[in-house]
Structure formats: C-alpha cells, structure tokens
Amino acid sequence: MSRSSKLAPEVNRALFVKNLSYNVSADDLYDLFGRFGSIRQIRQGIANNTKGTAFVVYEDVMDAKAACDKLNGFNFQNRYLVVLYHQPEKMAKSEANLAERQENLEKLKQEHAQKTADDPDDRTSFKRKDSGMSGMDPSKSPETATPKTRDFATTNTNTTNRNVRNEKHDTNNTKAAVDKSSSKMTPAPASVLGESKHKENLNMLRRMKNMALAPLHIGGGAKA
C-alpha cells in the first residue's frame, strides 16, 4: 500500500499560496518552502489580480503535505500566509462564479444609469414621498411656522405661573383658618368675668334674704 493512499483526496504536490508580500522574491520562496523537501517549480503571480499569490510544486506529495500543515498561518515578512492544496476544478468554478457576479453587477449599474438618465427627478420625488411632504409648501409647514421649542417654553411658563398662584391661594386660606381658630380660643376680658361674678353674688344674696323672711311653719297651727 502506497503512502498516498492514506491521504485525503485533495492532497497533492501543488500548493496555492496567498497573502504574500508584493516585495517577495522567488529566492525567498525557495528558501522558505525548500525546508520541507525538493521543489520542482515555483510560479508567482504578476498580474494585478494575482499579485501576492504563488504556486509551489513539490517532487513528493508528502513534502507538500508537511509544508501545507506547517506554513498555513505562518507569519512571513509580516504577513500571515494562506497555504492551500491546488484544486483546479474548484478554482475554475470559483472563477466562473466570480465572473458571473461581476457581470450581474455591471448589468445592474447599467440599468440604474439608464433609469436615472430617463427620469432625473425620480430620486427627488422618491425622497419626498418617503418623508410625506410631497406637494406641500415648506413655508406653510407647521414646524417652520412655529418652532416647537417656543411652544414648549411658553407652556412651561404658564404652568409655573399657575402653580405660584395656587400656592399663594393655599397660603391665604391657611392663614385665615389659623386666625379663625385663634379667635375662638381667645379668653373673655376681665370686665366680662367680673360682671358675671357680681350678678351671681346678687342672686345668691336675694335667695338668702327670701329664706330669712319666709315664715316658719311648726306642726299644724294656723299661720300668724
């Protein structure tokens, strides 16, 4: 049984390297990847859409596996490398999907440009429709005519004045109640008390005089 029979299907001798520095040289790549085995070929990307990438092909598949396991995520020239196994079918599918997405994007851009050219006021009318202000004169807007901040300040002033008046009214009522209660508890003058006492003494003297002048009845005799 060969060694390659135990490997995953995607493992092969060609590695695809991404996130390389734009200043990296072929000698730098040979020095780095050559530590894991004999290298057959290294190809660097030079186009605008392939800069920072490279293909590294080993003589032995096990050397390629060791390099992929060790160098994926390795910090090289202040860049973290992305090392993957080269899969032509998968890469071709990804490129086709990318090309299709770019084509759809271009179509959408062209449609939008054509629509804008046909109706340049479309964007303005759309904004007015969203804000609910289409067809309305801005000078007659309630917000423009009377600022909300002024209404708020006036309302607060009226409320404060009303509270002050209520407090004054409550204070006057409390004062009147205290005065009324105090008048009820005020003692009578001394002259009034003296006159009442004098009348009581006179009444008592009259009762004693009447008792002294009344005849005394003893037994069943006739009155004198």
From TrEMBL:
PROSITE patterns associated with the record: RRM (PS50102)
InterPro entries: Nucleotide-bd_a/b_plait_sf (IPR012677), RBD_domain_sf (IPR035979), RNA_proc/Spliceosome_comp (IPR051847), RRM_dom (IPR000504), SF3B6_RRM (IPR034150)
Protein's cellular compartments: Nucleus
SUPFAM superfamilies listed in its UniProt record: RNA-binding domain, RBD
UniProt cross-references to SMART domains, sorted A to Z: RRM
Signal peptide (from-to): none
Record Pfam families: RRM_1
Keywords, comma-separated and alphabetical: mRNA processing, mRNA splicing, Nucleus, RNA-binding
Region called Disordered, residue ranges: 109-197
Keyword Nucleus among UniProt keywords: yes
Feature: compositional bias, Basic and acidic residues: 109-131, 164-182
Biased composition (Low complexity): 154-163
Coiled coil: none
Protein name as it appears in the record: RRM domain-containing protein
